[in-house]
C-alpha cells in the first residue's frame, strides 16, 4: 500500500470528505495537467512539499482518477478535461490499461516545483514539468514551439485544452523553464526542451503573433527567415517628446529587436480597425520614430502571403544589418513546410 505524502488531521471534516476509499495518490500530467492549469490559477496553489518527489508505484485506477476529477470539477466549475485521463506513476503496472486512464511512467526523482497540491492526495504537474512531458511525446517540433509560446504568453487555445481567450496569465516563463531544466536534466523530454528553448519567447499575445515570430525568427534550417527570435510585447519607455505626441508613458512592441530600435507590429483586424484605432496607431508610430525607432506593420493578408512576408523579412534584415545567406539545402521546400505546419497559406499573392 502506498501511503499518502501528506497526512490529514483525523478531525478535519474537509479532508475526510475529500478522501477516496483507495488511498493511492493521483498525479495528473500531460494534457490533463494542462487543462487543469488553465482552469485553476496555479499562482494560488501550494507546491507539493519536499525537495524530491517520488511518484506512486501503482496506477490509481479509472474509478480513483475519475473520482479525483469529479472533485476538481465540483471545486472549479470551468474545468473541462478530455479523456483519457493522463496520470503519472513510478512503475507502470502490468496488465491492461484501464479504459479512460492513461498511465505514464517516470522513475526519476524530481527536484524543484514539480507538482501542485489540488486537494487531499490529488496533484497536478507544474507548467514546466507539463511542457517537458509534452516534449517527450510530441513529434512535431513546430507544434511544440507553438505550445511553448502559448504557455509563456498571454493567450490560450485548444493546445492547452481551453477555449480561445486573450489577456490571460502566462502559465510559464523561459526563466522558470530553464531553472527547472537545470535541476532535472535527465528526465524524459528534458534534452529536447533544452535544445529548442533558444527559439521560445515570453509574452506573445496571440497565436498569430507566435506564427509571425516563428516565420521571421527561426533559422533557415527550419524554414524560417533566420532573423533571430524577437522580444515579444516588449515595453519601451516614452521620451518627453514621444509622450507629448502620443499621451502615453510607454509603448508595447509586438515583435521587437530593442538593440536595433526595431518594432514589427502585427496589425490584427480586432485591434487596428476604425478611425480611432488608426489615429492612435499613427500617434504611436510618430512617437516611436521621434525616439529613433523604425516601425514595420504586418497585416493578416501580408502574413498569409509568401511574397509579402519575404519582402517584409528583407526590410527587417537590412535594418538589422544582416545579409540573406541561404546555406540550407531545399530552403524553399522547408519554408513551405513550416508555413503548412503553422496553418498559414502557401501562396504568393
Number of domains: 2
Termini Cα gap: 65 Å
Number of beta-strand segments: 14
H/E element sequence = HEHEEHEEEEEHHEEHHHEHEEHHEHHH
Task: Give the overall shape.
Answer: globular
Proportion in helices: 25-40%
How many alpha or pi helices? 14
Describe this structure in words.
- With 349 residues, the protein is α/β, with parallel strands linked by helices.
- The chain folds into two domains: 13-196, no CATH class; 204-341, no CATH class.
- It has helices spanning 13-18, 30-39, 62-75, 127-137, 141-151, 174-183, 190-196, 207-217, 240-246, 269-272, 275-290, 300-304, 306-320, 331-341, and strands at residues 26-28, 46-47, 52-53, 85-89, 101-105, 110-111, 115-119, 122-125, 155-156, 165-166, 231-237, 250-257, 262-267, 294-299.
- The strands form five sheets. Strands 1-8-7-2 form a four-stranded mixed β-sheet.
- It starts with 12 loop residues before the first helix and ends in an 8-residue tail after the last helix.
- The model is unreliable at 1-21 (pLDDT under 50).
Amino acid at each position: 500500500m502506498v501511503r499518502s505524502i501528506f497526512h490529514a488531521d483525523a478531525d478535519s471534516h474537509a479532508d475526510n470528505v475529500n478522501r477516496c476509499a483507495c488511498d493511492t495518490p493521483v498525479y495528473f500530467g500531460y494534457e490533463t495537467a494542462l487543462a487543469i492549469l488553465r482552469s485553476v490559477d496555479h499562482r494560488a496553489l501550494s507546491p507539493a512539499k519536499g525537495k524530491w518527489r517520488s511518484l506512486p508505484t501503482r496506477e490509481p485506477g479509472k474509478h480513483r482518477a475519475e473520482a479525483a476529477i469529479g472533485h476538481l470539477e465540483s471545486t472549479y466549475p470551468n474545468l473541462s478535461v478530455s479523456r483519457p485521463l493522463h496520470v503519472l506513476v513510478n512503475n507502470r503496472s502490468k496488465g491492461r490499461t484501464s479504459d479512460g486512464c492513461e498511465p505514464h511512467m517516470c522513475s526519476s526523482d524530481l527536484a524543484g516545483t514539480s507538482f501542485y497540491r489540488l486537494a487531499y492526495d490529488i496533484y497536478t504537474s507544474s507548467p514546466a514539468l507539463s511542457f517537458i512531458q509534452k516534449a517527450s511525446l510530441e513529434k512535431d517540433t513546430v507544434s511544440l514551439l507553438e505550445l511553448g509560446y502559448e504557455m509563456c504568453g498571454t493567450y490560450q487555445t485548444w493546445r492547452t485544452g481551453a477555449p480561445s481567450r486573450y489577456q490571460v496569465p502566462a502559465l510559464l516563463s523561459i526563466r522558470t523553464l530553464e531553472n527547472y531544466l537545470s535541476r532535472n536534466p535527465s528526465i524524459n523530454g528534458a534534452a529536447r526542451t533544452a535544445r529548442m528553448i533558444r527559439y521560445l519567447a515570453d509574452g506573445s499575445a496571440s497565436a498569430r503573433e507566435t506564427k509571425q515570430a516563428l516565420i521571421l525568427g527561426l533559422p533557415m534550417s527550419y524554414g524560417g527567415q533566420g532573423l533571430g527570435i524577437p522580444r515579444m510585447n516588449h515595453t519601451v519607455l516614452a521620451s518627453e517628446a514621444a509622450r507629448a505626441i502620443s499621451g502615453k508613458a510607454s509603448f508595447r512592441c509586438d515583435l521587437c529587436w530593442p538593440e536595433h530600435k526595431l518594432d514589427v507590429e502585427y496589425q490584427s483586424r480586432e485591434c487596428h480597425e476604425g478611425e480611432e484605432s488608426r489615429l492612435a496607431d499613427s500617434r504611436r508610430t510618430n512617437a516611436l520614430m521621434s525616439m529613433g525607432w523604425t516601425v514595420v506593420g504586418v497585416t493578416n493578408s501580408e502574413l498569409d502571403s509568401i511574397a509579402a512576408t519575404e519582402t517584409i523579412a528583407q526590410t527587417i534584415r537590412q535594418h538589422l544589418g544582416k545579409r540573406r545567406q541561404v546555406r540550407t539545402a531545399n530552403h524553399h521546400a522547408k519554408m513551405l513546410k513550416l508555413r503548412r505546419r503553422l496553418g498559414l497559406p502557401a501562396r504568393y499573392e
